[in-house]
Amino acid sequence: MLPSEAGHAVAVAQPEPMxxxxxxxxRRLPEESRLRLTWSDGHIAEYDYDYLRxxxxxxxxxxxxxxxxxxxxxxxxxxxxxIEPVGNYAISFHWSDGHATxxxxxxxxxxxxxxxxxxxDRAEGGDSPTTQPA
Length: 134
Known about the structure:
Layout: E1 2-3, E2 9-10, E3 23-29, E4 34-39, E5 44-48, H1 49-54, H2 59-62, E6 69-70, E7 80-86, E8 90-95, E9 103-105, H3 106-111, H4 116-123, E10 130-131
Parallel strand pairs: 6-10
Antiparallel strand pairs: 1-2, 3-4, 4-5, 7-8, 8-9
Protein backbone atom coordinates (compact mmCIF):
# COMPACT_ATOMS: atom_id res chain seq x y z
CA MET A 1 0.00 0.00 0.00
CA LEU A 2 1.20 3.51 -0.78
CA PRO A 3 -0.03 6.71 0.87
CA SER A 4 -2.19 8.88 -1.36
CA GLU A 5 -2.04 12.68 -1.44
CA ALA A 6 -5.15 12.86 0.75
CA GLY A 7 -3.54 10.68 3.42
CA HIS A 8 -5.43 7.52 2.49
CA ALA A 9 -3.78 4.29 1.44
CA VAL A 10 -4.01 3.31 -2.21
CA ALA A 11 -3.76 -0.30 -3.30
CA VAL A 12 -1.03 -0.97 -5.86
CA ALA A 13 -1.33 -4.03 -8.05
CA GLN A 14 1.58 -6.40 -7.65
CA PRO A 15 3.27 -7.57 -10.85
CA GLU A 16 2.55 -11.10 -11.92
CA PRO A 17 5.41 -13.50 -11.15
CA MET A 18 7.55 -14.36 -14.15
CA UNK A 19 6.29 -17.59 -15.68
CA UNK A 20 9.23 -18.09 -18.00
CA UNK A 21 12.71 -18.96 -16.83
CA UNK A 22 15.20 -16.12 -16.42
CA UNK A 23 18.94 -16.04 -15.74
CA UNK A 24 19.94 -16.05 -12.09
CA UNK A 25 23.67 -15.88 -12.87
CA UNK A 26 25.69 -14.64 -15.82
CA ARG A 27 29.33 -15.72 -15.75
CA ARG A 28 32.13 -15.11 -18.20
CA LEU A 29 34.40 -18.05 -18.93
CA PRO A 30 37.24 -16.20 -20.70
CA GLU A 31 39.62 -19.17 -21.01
CA GLU A 32 36.91 -20.99 -22.98
CA SER A 33 35.54 -17.90 -24.77
CA ARG A 34 32.11 -18.73 -23.38
CA LEU A 35 29.32 -17.24 -21.34
CA ARG A 36 27.51 -19.40 -18.77
CA LEU A 37 23.90 -18.63 -17.91
CA THR A 38 22.29 -20.32 -14.95
CA TRP A 39 18.50 -20.19 -15.25
CA SER A 40 15.80 -19.92 -12.59
CA ASP A 41 14.60 -23.45 -13.44
CA GLY A 42 18.08 -24.91 -12.83
CA HIS A 43 19.09 -25.17 -16.49
CA ILE A 44 22.72 -24.25 -17.22
CA ALA A 45 23.71 -23.10 -20.69
CA GLU A 46 27.12 -22.19 -22.09
CA TYR A 47 27.26 -20.02 -25.19
CA ASP A 48 30.41 -19.44 -27.24
CA TYR A 49 31.02 -15.71 -27.60
CA ASP A 50 31.06 -15.99 -31.40
CA TYR A 51 27.78 -17.93 -31.29
CA LEU A 52 26.11 -15.12 -29.33
CA ARG A 53 27.57 -12.43 -31.57
CA UNK A 54 26.42 -14.38 -34.63
CA UNK A 55 22.87 -14.38 -33.28
CA UNK A 56 22.80 -10.64 -32.60
CA UNK A 57 19.11 -9.76 -32.90
CA UNK A 58 19.53 -6.09 -33.79
CA UNK A 59 18.13 -4.69 -37.04
CA UNK A 60 21.63 -3.74 -38.21
CA UNK A 61 22.66 -7.39 -38.13
CA UNK A 62 19.35 -9.03 -39.07
CA UNK A 63 17.70 -6.40 -41.25
CA UNK A 64 14.04 -5.46 -41.10
CA UNK A 65 12.68 -8.71 -42.50
CA UNK A 66 10.42 -11.46 -41.23
CA UNK A 67 11.57 -11.41 -37.62
CA UNK A 68 13.34 -14.76 -37.95
CA UNK A 69 16.84 -14.44 -36.50
CA UNK A 70 19.55 -16.00 -38.67
CA UNK A 71 23.02 -16.94 -37.53
CA UNK A 72 25.54 -14.57 -39.09
CA UNK A 73 29.06 -15.46 -37.94
CA UNK A 74 31.31 -12.59 -36.87
CA UNK A 75 34.17 -11.68 -39.22
CA UNK A 76 36.72 -12.39 -36.47
CA UNK A 77 36.58 -13.89 -32.96
CA UNK A 78 34.97 -11.59 -30.39
CA UNK A 79 34.95 -11.10 -26.64
CA UNK A 80 32.37 -9.19 -24.61
CA UNK A 81 33.95 -6.03 -23.23
CA UNK A 82 30.80 -5.35 -21.18
CA ILE A 83 27.62 -7.23 -20.28
CA GLU A 84 24.71 -5.20 -18.96
CA PRO A 85 21.14 -5.96 -17.90
CA VAL A 86 18.32 -4.40 -19.92
CA GLY A 87 15.38 -3.95 -17.59
CA ASN A 88 14.26 -7.29 -16.20
CA TYR A 89 13.91 -8.98 -19.58
CA ALA A 90 17.24 -8.93 -21.47
CA ILE A 91 21.03 -8.62 -21.59
CA SER A 92 23.09 -6.29 -23.76
CA PHE A 93 26.65 -7.01 -24.86
CA HIS A 94 29.37 -4.62 -25.92
CA TRP A 95 31.52 -6.73 -28.22
CA SER A 96 35.23 -6.34 -28.92
CA ASP A 97 34.42 -5.63 -32.60
CA GLY A 98 32.70 -2.40 -31.48
CA HIS A 99 29.13 -3.67 -31.86
CA ALA A 100 26.77 -2.92 -28.96
CA THR A 101 23.20 -2.49 -30.23
CA UNK A 102 21.82 -6.01 -29.78
CA UNK A 103 19.34 -6.63 -26.98
CA UNK A 104 19.21 -10.34 -26.18
CA UNK A 105 15.84 -11.08 -24.54
CA UNK A 106 15.87 -13.89 -21.98
CA UNK A 107 13.33 -15.92 -23.96
CA UNK A 108 15.48 -15.54 -27.08
CA UNK A 109 18.63 -16.67 -25.24
CA UNK A 110 16.77 -19.71 -24.01
CA UNK A 111 15.52 -20.55 -27.52
CA UNK A 112 19.05 -20.47 -28.94
CA UNK A 113 20.56 -22.48 -26.09
CA UNK A 114 23.27 -24.65 -27.66
CA UNK A 115 23.21 -27.48 -25.10
CA UNK A 116 22.48 -31.01 -26.29
CA UNK A 117 19.10 -31.20 -24.53
CA UNK A 118 17.84 -27.95 -26.07
CA UNK A 119 19.14 -28.89 -29.51
CA UNK A 120 17.31 -32.22 -29.25
CA ASP A 121 14.12 -30.41 -28.22
CA ARG A 122 14.38 -28.12 -31.25
CA ALA A 123 15.01 -31.13 -33.52
CA GLU A 124 11.81 -32.73 -32.19
CA GLY A 125 9.82 -29.64 -33.13
CA GLY A 126 10.26 -27.54 -30.01
CA ASP A 127 10.06 -23.73 -30.10
CA SER A 128 12.74 -22.46 -32.48
CA PRO A 129 12.16 -19.16 -34.27
CA THR A 130 15.76 -19.09 -35.46
CA THR A 131 17.91 -20.57 -38.16
CA GLN A 132 20.64 -22.63 -36.53
CA PRO A 133 24.26 -22.53 -37.73
CA ALA A 134 25.44 -25.46 -39.80
